[in-house]
Amino acid sequence: KEDVLNHVADLKIADIQKPYVSQYPVEDKIVPLTNIQKSMFKIMTKSLQIPHFGYSDEYSFDNVISFRDMIGQSNNQFSIKKISYMPILIKSFSVALQQFPILNASIIEKENDDGDSNVIKIRYRSAHNVGIAMDTPGGLLVPNIKNVQTKSIFEISEDLQRLQEAGKKNLISPTDLKDGTITLSNIGIIGGIFLSPVVVCSELCIAAIGKIQRLPRFEIIKDKITGEIKEQVVAKNIVPISFSADHRVIDGVTIAKFSQRWKNLLENPALLSAELR
Ligand code: CAO
Question: Which of 53, 92, 103, 203 is the most exposed place for a label (fewest CB within 10 A)?
Answer without folding.
Answer: 53
